Amino acid sequence: MTDPADPAAPAGPVAVWHRLADFAVLLDGFHALKHALRFGAEVPVAVTTDRAATLALADELAPDVRETLDALLTEVAPGTYEKLVPRPHPTGVAALAVRPPRAANLEVLARVPRPAPVVVLDNPRNLGNAGAVIRLAAGFGATGVVTTGTLDPWHPTVVRGGAGLHFATAVERVTVEELPAGPLYALDPEGDDIRGVKLPDDAVLAFGSERSGLSAELRARADHLVALPMRPQVSSYNLATSVGMTLYHWSLTADF
Ligand SMILES: C[S@@+](CC[C@H](N)C(=O)[O-])C[C@H]1O[C@@H](n2cnc3c(N)ncnc32)[C@H](O)[C@@H]1O
Asked: Which residues form the tRNA/rRNA methyltransferase SpoU type domain (predicted)?
């Protein structure tokens, strides 16, 4: 099947794209594709509006995945690219990746002993925050990020915010009853000052929703309530910022 708007484009990759687009994970831009490849994502198709420029970017920023990109990338006309992606990215690169099976992620999350904490976002509302948290979790080598509630942590906007790092940590949606085992540290301004707490590697670190904080259900399951230092007149920190500070605090005493 050729693309009527771009008859010169190789039929294969565009046809593969159309076949996979509804259920694959959109990797939007060079950095998302680079990260996904580094962390072992299966990427059946990748397109660029300028193959030479993308490979030059790889030479400069990601020589480790240059060869893989060389084999994977298909150049398409800008018009074809714009039809494949909802919001064209400045790097003119996009790819589709296979979402890791839920069962495999749940197995990683359940595995004990755990070398690094699991982050729980309890009913998060903001897709950008969720993406930023996944990026933080990947950076700190956290075991995974699980969300409760209705937000889909694999929503395209979350994947965009996560810069392709969903493949570097186990990301799933679960219920409070399904949270991974391990001591549950819930972050709340009313808790004990985190500076006096050692967070263990198998900790489950829970953060409340942007609107209403921790749910009653999660609070009831918490083993410890922990607070980040904050002067009295400030009511709370941003959700992703709170996760960043907490993972940093964990890393200070971890073999990280
Ligand atoms: C934006 S805050 C929630 C604010 C919300 N209006 C409330 O009533 O709690 C999102 C989450 O970040 C974490 N957080 C923010 N500031 C914190 C602090 N000083 N200490 C501990 N956790 C904090 C908590 O888990 C909180 O539920």
From this structure: 118-248
Percentage, residues of the chain above pLDDT 70: 96
Distance (angstroms) between ligand 1 centre and the Cα of 222 equals 15
Amino acid 36: pLDDT: 97
Tell me if 105 CB under 6 Å of ligand 1: no
**All domains of the chain, ordered by start, with CATH?**
11-97 (3.30.1330.30), 102-253 (3.40.1280.10)
Q: Distance from the CA of 243 to the center of ligand 1, in angstroms?
A: 10
Reported confidence tier of residue 109, pLDDT bands at 50, 70, 90: very high
What's the token pair of residue 233?
A: 């007149």
Report, as an integer, the average pLDDT of 161-175: 97
d(C-alpha 32, C-alpha 95), whole Å: 9
Q: What is the pTM of this model?
A: 0.94
- Within 8 A by CB and 6+ apart from 72, the residues are 43, 45, 46, 95
Largest CA distance in the chain: 65
In whole angstroms, give the CA distance from residue 74 to residue 246: 41
Q: How far apart are CA 70 and CA 76, in angstroms?
A: 14
Q: What confidence category does residue 87 fall into, taking pLDDT thresholds of 50, 70 and 90?
A: confident
Identify the CA nearest to 126 among candidates 93, 150, 144, 107.
Answer: 150
